[in-house]
Specification:
Distance between the termini of chain B: 17 Å
Region (Disordered) (chain A): 581-614
Radius of gyration of chain B: 20 Å
Helix content of chain B: under 10%
Order of helices and strands of chain B: EEEEEEEEEEEEEEEEEEEEEEEEEEEEH
Helix content of chain A: over 70%
Largest sheet of chain B: 4 strands, antiparallel
Number of strands of chain B: 28
Structural class of chain A: mainly alpha
Oligomer: heterodimer
Shape of chain B: globular
Subcellular location (chain A): Golgi apparatus, trans-Golgi network
Protein name (chain A): Vacuolar protein sorting-associated protein 51 homolog
CATH topology of chain B: Methylamine Dehydrogenase, Chain H
CATH architecture of chain B: 7 Propeller
Largest interface: A-B, 29 and 29 residues
Number of helices of chain A: 23
Shape of chain A: elongated
GO biological process, one term (chain A): Golgi vesicle transport
CATH superfamily of chain B: YVTN repeat-like/Quinoprotein amine dehydrogenase
Biased composition (Basic and acidic residues) (chain A): 583-595
Number of domains of chain B: 1
Amino acid sequence: MSKEATENDKRKRNNLLSQYYGITKEKDVENLFDVDGKHFNADAYVDKLVQETSLKQLIDKEQELVREIQSLDSEMQTLVYENYNKFILATDTIRQMKSDFKTMEDEMEKLDRRQQITKLSNIHELLKNLQFLFDLPTKLKSSVEEKNYSLAVKYYAKSEQVLKDFGDHPSFSGIQSDCQEIVTTLRKCLKDQFVRAEVTSRELEESVTLLSKLGESSTSLALEFTVINKGRLEKDLDDLSSYTTSGENNGEAVLAFIEKCCNTALNNAALTIATFNNIFPLASAKDNEGLIDMAVDVINRLCPVVKTKVVEIIGLEMSEGCCLSLVAALDKFHRRLLAVQRLLMSDNQWSSILITDVAQIISNRAAENLVVKWTQELQGWRDSWNNDNQPHGSVKFIEGALIEHIHRTLVALTAFVGNHVTFSQDYQFRQTFGRRHVREGVFIMSLKKLSIMLSNLCNATGKDNASPTLILVLSRVAIDFNQNLAQSLLSLIEEQFDIPAGFQGDNLTPISAVTADFKQASQTLLQRYVQSESHVLVQMIRKSMDSRDWLTTSEPRSVRPVIKRVLEEISRVDSHAAQLYEEGSRKDRSSDSSRRTHHSSRMQQKSSWSSLGPSQLDSSLLNNIQKLFSERIDLSGTVEPNKGSVVMAVIKICLKGFLECVRLKTFGKYGIQQIQVDCYYLQLFLWRFTFDENLVHSLLDEILSSAVQRCLEPVLMEPGVVELICER
Amino acid sequence: MEEEAPIIYGLDFQARSLCAQYGETEMVRFLIGTQSLKSENSIHCVEYDEESVLVSKFVYPHPLGEIWQTNAHPNQADIISTVHKGQNQKMSATIYKMSPVPSNGQSIDTLDPTSHGQLKAIASLESSDEKEVAKVLWQPNDGNKVVTVSTDSQINLWDFSNDGKVQNAIFSEPLCKTHNQVTAANWSPHHGTNQVAVAMETNLQVVDLRSVNKGSIYNIENAHIEPIRDLDFNPNRQYYMATCGDDGCVKFWDVRNLSSPVLNRHDHYHWVWQVRYNVFHDQLVLSAGSDARVVLTSAASLSSEPFGKLMSDDKDNDDDEDVRSPLADGVITAYEEHEDSVYSVAWSSADSWTFASLSYGGRLLIHRVPRSLKHSILF
């Protein structure tokens, strides 16, 4: 029964535990036989075992159960032991805690004291700050007075917030208003420093930094900065525009001027931009743009000023040294300008436009100078021409002088394409300069002018009249320009100025246009020479004809001196022309007189004269014979550039003039005999000057026959007598 | 410019003087004086009929020797003057009446071909000191006066009345004391026909006949670098004249500014012997030279009608043809048909587009100006 009671207790306790742990009771029959189950019934289990199992199995079960009981017993003992140990440990811990709390209480006491100290220190600090505040106006004032603006601003910045927060407190409002007043002064001082003309960039930077700390808007400062610097740059521009040189060497003056440009306007522009970027690192794009626009505008206006000034200073003198200095100056400006341009991040073509413009002006001037020099030379030669000058040497001399001038000009201009020159590394510039300015502007232009000047020399009359020999010399000069001088100058230019040899494209004037002008000029000069020389000779002949009474003149004893004189002159013309021109060939000449079909040789001519006996001289018959044999003498034939043609042209005009004079006179017997002698003499000596004797004979023939027609008593001399007189 | 072949008329004698028969206003007629020392000289009256392209002539023997200058009366067809040199080898001047002469508009062919022409000397313009005469000039327009210029530049003015009486009015002193001979002279049709220009070699002097001994009104020193051979006044513009000379140049002058010619043409290759304005179209100027050429020059920029004839206001003609450019200055045509020196050239008095030129061998050429030129001037 007690067993049952304990069993019941046990079950109750299990139930309670099960309830507590939430294990639901399962009324399962099977579980009654599970040894480890909750509803295990030992009696039922044993009954069941005895009934269902064999003995052997029973014995085995019994042994198994005994073993299990033994192992559970030992397990239980181990558990009890372990739990006891834990209890002992807990007791120790509690004891330890008791002592620890005692220490903590002590520490807490200490802490309490420290808090008091802190509070005291805070109060001290506050008092110090207050002291600072009360002292602030004085300090600000003194630092402003000492111009120690940054310190002042530092002080003010320190107290600004406090003053703002407690400004309405009566004890602070006084301080605040004092401070405000001083800060206003400070601001003014800073602004003054900002706008001061001679402010350094550092000061400027300081002002701006401080002002922005004082709460100025950076946009308005940037604007103000721009305006102030604009004013400064404007002043630089004005200074440069009114820059005057002190009469020193032009080249040096240009360098000095460019130096000044770089050091003032250009430098300041660069400085402005740099300073701006420095002090307004965070400037808005718009502010930045304003400044850039201003700087661009200044440079836009600077370039024309530089151009005008440079061109003005360099003046008309175009020496090599001058050009070198000019180019050096321009190059310097170019490099500085490029640097500024990089700062501005601008892609304007300022310097290339400027330099191209200046180069053009300079080359134009060089060309004009050259033409002036040539004009002076030509005038000099014209005015001081010595008729003893030998044509050959004179040609060399004049060509040398002319070439020398153009060489000098070209050498001066090569400065622009020197290897060390930065701007001339630009292909576009080199090309434009070489082709347009030097080749077209200087070379072509000046040579065209030269050819015109040479031609114009012919037209001058009166005191500007040039000596015939000079005209002949110049005709040779023109031919030499036509044949090789112009071409070799061009080759030189092509070599020096990077133009492909013989380059024809790019609308360049072909060299043939120039050489054709010279050919024309030489033709004009040559014709003019022929006119001048024959003018003198014809005048001599005409005067001699007018000064004699041909009706009553006495029997001829000699050739008239004037005829000898004419021959001498023709001989001089011949020797002059021979110095400068080739002989010329018979073929050339035959085209001159193609209309003429006179075919008698000299000997035939002579005999036909002899056959004109006094009795046969019937004027109308002679007239008709004349018409049969002589054809029109062409006086127009252009003078070929060879000796024969030149001399022949002079002879033709002279003899034709002689003929005209004869036709205006009336001759007596001796008069015509004198003409006969003169003509024979001319015939004797003129042939050597020309291949075309026939033409000479034909003209002399006509003179004599015209004289015969104009003769009242046409009795010619015996040929033998004529020969005798002429050979004497 | 197309050229029409000239009509050629050959004389058998040498000749240097030619003029139009000014009194004849309908027939194209020229007078030529021959220059022969040995044969009898004569005045050839040559008529050109444009339609039949025929040349007719009538010859008037000139017994007083070779003729150096022939000058017709400005409006009397039968009156001429010549400068001639006879047996005494002295240059003299005589005024003749020609007979027979066809009445105005009648062809020379209407004259009896068997009849002989006759030159009746009306007056010998012999000055008392018997100087050699260089030029005879008829007073332009009415021909009531004659001027003779002696070779040493003495000017004599003669009154010539229609009944043929000649009376010496003025003798001047020689204009020039130098030995320079008179080479050319002409009488200005302007300024009340009171001005006569005389060229002595390279210098030109213009005198007023009313004050002939008070020196020249103006002169051009060295107008040409060689002697002046002829000069002519622009018939329609009073301040303009042309000169020509041995330098081969024809120069046009504005007498108000004589420092330099307003136009200088050098179109001849030898001496220029004569220069003549066309009376109706003074932009056309002829010059003749010993280069055997006759040059028709345009001096349009100095002409009284510089842009050609003014356009009519007729609106119907407002066509595109109106856009013609004015004639440029310069050579229009150079005639090279002569084979010897051309000493004289003359515009016809009846047809302003016809002219004649005479070369030494006695060859007369009658030319017409190119038709295109005529059209460009007329229309």
